[in-house]
Automatic annotation (TrEMBL):
GO MF assignments: heme transmembrane transporter activity
Cellular localization per UniProt: Cell inner membrane
Keywords from the named record: Cell inner membrane, Cell membrane, Cytochrome c-type biogenesis, Membrane, Transmembrane, Transmembrane helix, Transport
Name of the protein in its database record: Heme exporter protein B
Protein topology in the membrane: Multi-pass membrane protein
Function: Required for the export of heme to the periplasm for the biogenesis of c-type cytochromes.
Segments passing through the bilayer: 66-84, 105-134, 140-166, 173-198, 204-229
Family affiliation: Belongs to the CcmB/CycW/HelB family.
Length: 235
């Protein structure tokens, strides 16, 4: 009898990327607070806005695109500080720098897991919170699409700041100062896409600009993050 066939192993250059993502996903499942806290923060902020501003649907629907995007941005920022800090504390980050695989590839795997655990759940959760802000139902698909694209760019940009502040005590404030100015274009085009969907104007330009920002971040951020990690660990 022939031996049972094993599942297909990832081959070639994909193997380090898949192994890194598998490891990070397992660690994420063992510490659910790391991905539940941003979601709880997102929900809490959106819940408090109608209480603090006005429960009138006309007011909330006007402010909803900006409120949802600002809350999602802050929730993403909340989860950035721990992106590399745990690995730096237990010494595994030094092993990644010494690995034969390209460091930008491993950084990209870490950012992908961060997006899956933070950005994607925020995009899926946003329509539920949009109901609380009287957001028109026709804009929900655009809200999810813009948040999915934009949050990926936020994770890539935020990884650079997270890498630069690894060795800084209480580096959360410094991290915010570094990445918030770079987040502004994503915030503008992301909320603009939702507002365009509400107003019935073309949304393709906004999505195209979000896609261009994501492509630029994909091309530059892994290399910049890898350089920042080397600088932080050699400082």
């Amino acid at each position: 009898m022939s031996r049972p066939e094993r599942y297909a192993e990832p081959s070639g250059a994909n193997r380090p990327l898949i192994a890194m993502m598998r490891r990070d996903l397992l660690l994420m499942m063992r510490s659910p607070g790391a991905w539940l806290n941003p979601l709880a923060f997102f929900a809490l902020v959106i819940t408090l806005f109608p209480v603090g501003i006005s429960p009138a649907a006309s007011v909330l629907s006007t402010l909803a695109p900006g409120l949802l995007w600002v809350a999602a941005l802050l929730a993403t920022l909340l989860s950035l500080e721990g992106m590399f800090r745990d690995d730096a504390e237990d010494g595994s980050l030094e092993q990644l720098l010494l690995a034969p695989q390209p460091l930008p590839l491993l950084v990209l795997a870490r950012v992908a897991v961060h997006w899956v655990s933070t950005g994607l759940p925020l995009a899926l959760m946003a329509p539920v919170l949009g109901i609380m802000l009287a957001l028109p139902s026709g804009s929900y698909p655009m809200l999810m699409a813009s948040l999915a694209l934009g949050s990926a760019a936020l994770s890539l940009i935020g990884a650079i700041g997270a890498a630069l502040t690894i060795g800084v005590a209480r580096g959360g404030i410094l991290l915010s100062l570094l990445v918030l100015p770079l987040y502004v274009p994503v915030l503008i085009f992301g909320s603009g896409a939702v507002q365009a969907a509400i107003g019935g104007t073309p949304v393709a330009p906004h999505l195209a600009l979000l896609g261009a920002l994501l492509a630029l971040a994909l091309a530059l951020a892994p290399w910049a993050t890898a350089a920042a990690l080397r600088i932080s660990l050699n400082a």
